[in-house]
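Subject — a protein and its fold
Fields — amino acid sequence, structure tokens
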Amino acid sequence: MEINAKMVNALRTRTGAGMMDCKKALIEANGDEEKAVEILRKHGSALADKKAARTASQGLIAAYVHSNNKVGVLIEVACESDFVAKNEDFKAFVKDLCMHIAAAAPICISKEDVPADIIAKEREIAMAQLEGDKKPEAIKEKIVNGKIDKFVSGVALLEQPFVKDDSMTIGDLIKSKIATIGEKIEVKRFTRYQI
């Protein structure tokens, strides 16, 4: 199948990836846009893994206040260079992160950051819900672990589905931005305020 500029541009608009990356992905996917998106996402993950050891000492702090003035977010997102920190695409990405945090109300950045006492309390609640159930203990344990995993993915920022596109998590979104921008990007911290 012949890959034309219109196809490349459509994929680029959808993913934010570079033109050559989009063209290569479309060639590899035989013109199938959905497969090309998947290829780009896998490529983004591989690129993000390579850049994980780098130091992100630049970046920016951004704020977002929702239109009702009842929810606000302050976030620090790091990157490797001042050039990227001043880039409009990066600023828009950080604003998207702020809006996501305002809407989804995560309590921490990664699943490793979820406080142990909160997980213990959720485990206790899940066990209490299965108390009268006659299922074997091994099955109950799997059910409880499933509930804990679901809980963690709901409160850890990187595990949450992105509010603008729930086909990807925030972690996937960051990896795709790393692939597009070519630098390590890291959410350092955030605070969400709500009245």
